[in-house]
Every structure is written in C-alpha cells, then in structure tokens.
# Entry
Amino acid sequence: MKIDPKRLRLYAVTDRAWTHDAEGLLRQVAAAVDGGAGIVQLREKHMGQADFLAEAERFVALCREKGAVSIINDNVEIAAQTGADGVHVGQEDLEAGRTRELLGPDKLIGVSAHSVEEALAAQAAGADYLGVGAAFVTGTKTDAKPISRETIRAITAAVDIPVVAIGGISLGNVSQLSGSGICGIAVISAIYGAADIRRASLDLKAATEEMLRS
# Structure
C-alpha cells in the first residue's frame, strides 16, 4: 500500500504519559486529527492483549470516522484483528518482510531506521515509509540516541519511500530539519503534552510545511 506523503506531514504517536484511560486517549487522538494529523500511531507498551485489542478497535473506528490513517505500534496481530491501516515496527520487532507476509499487500508497514543500511534493508523487505531518528534528544525514549542531519539526509537520498523524522521534535526546532529530505515529522510530547492539542497540531503542521518550503 502506498501512502500520500502529504498524509505524513504530521504523524501523531500516542503516549499514556498524559492520560490514564481510553476515553482520554481517544479524545486526544480526535483533537490531534482535528488539528491536522493525517496519520496516528497507537502505541501501548505496557497493556495486556485483550485491553489493547478493545482500545485499538475504538481507535481504528475513530480514525476511520475522521479520515486519518490508523497505525498500530509493533503488534501485527492487533493490527490485523482491528482492520487498522497498518503497523509500525522497530529494529528489534518483527522483520518487515515477515510483517508483510502476515498483513498482506494492502496494509501499510512503517519501520524505524537509524542508518542507511537499516533504511535500505527495510525498503527491500517491503516497508512503505520510514521513521528516522532520534532527530533530537527525546524524553520519551531515553535510550534513543540522536542521529546527525547528515545521516537523515543520507537516508532520504538512499531510499525511494517517504521518510518522517521522529524524536524530540517541537515547534521550536522543526525548522532545523530543513533540507533533510524528510516529508514530515512524527511527534509525541509536542502534541499530547500540550494544553491545547488541536492548536499544537495546527501549529506543528504549519511549521512543518514552512520548513519543507524553505
């Protein structure tokens, strides 16, 4: 499945740090989409399978209702069961080629990459887009080491699929990604940690579009 790069201008990744129940999380997702997020990833690292499935079913329905692309983090089984638009896997998770076998040709597969070698391997295995980073120091994944602008540029030049930058991106630093070849940004705290999620999303998308024009 191909994705319109414009959908990736603003990619919202959920995090439970700012809400403790499914109702709150779904309200946050709705606000992010209303603010311009074209694709949303449901990320639940510490939830049991049954609870994750129940939440994911509501998440996928919400995204479908609002016209956003729904992605499940890591869990291919949940993505398949809920009819999500796709799944995102890391380097330590299920290999992209095997993920494609399980999900079929009509679903999106995103892969995290930190080097040209990882990016090319993911593309060869059938990835539809890449999440590359960390672009900056991030508090969400404390083990994620920032990669250089040069590495991001090398990755985008090496592959033919869309690339989004992720990791520590905020309204104050998105302009620093100008000229890197990315088509958008993936954001967690700069969206969900904001007092007004819709406003934060609108501002981030506008800043990204300005960065891409510069």
Summary: The longest helix spans residues 49-66. The radius of gyration is 16 Å. The mean pLDDT is 95.
